[in-house]
Each structure stands twice: as structure tokens, then as C-alpha cells.
Amino acid sequence: MAANNSTLNLPSWASNATILGSNDSYLLLNIFSDDIADNLFHQLRDEITWNEMRRKGGRVPRDISIQGTLINHNGDQYEPLFRH
Fold this sequence. Notes:
Elements: E1 18-20, E2 25-27, H1 34-47, E3 51-55, E4 58-64, E5 71-73, E6 76-78
């Protein structure tokens, strides 16, 4: 998707962001210092349950995490959908 740098209705927290899509997605870079970002990355990596994804019998080169809550309603079970 091409970047769109329109500033119409831009939230104040996104003033230095690259606007993507239909002006509703923002790419924020370097929002944490390097040492904080490195620590956050390792904390998230360690606390999230990761799974491998397979396609056509082979492993894809990234780990995934599917998180959500199973809901039971009137005898039916609903679960989050995964799309990539």
C-alpha cells in the first residue's frame, strides 16, 4: 500500500507518523530508546506463547501467536479467526 501523507484529522500522537491506507493506519518509528525497545522486545518474545505455521508440509519462516478467548453462547463455541 502506498503511503499517504495527508494530515487531515491526524491525531496529535501521530504527528511524526507515516500515514498508510485510508488515513486510518500509522507507522510510528523509534518511539522508544534503543535500550528500552530491546528490553521490551525480549520481554514480549519470552512471555508470548509462539507456534509454528506450516504450509504445504513445510514450516514458514516466522513464528505466530494466536491469542483470543473462546466464547460459549447457547451451546455454540466461538473462537477467534486467524488471517494473515
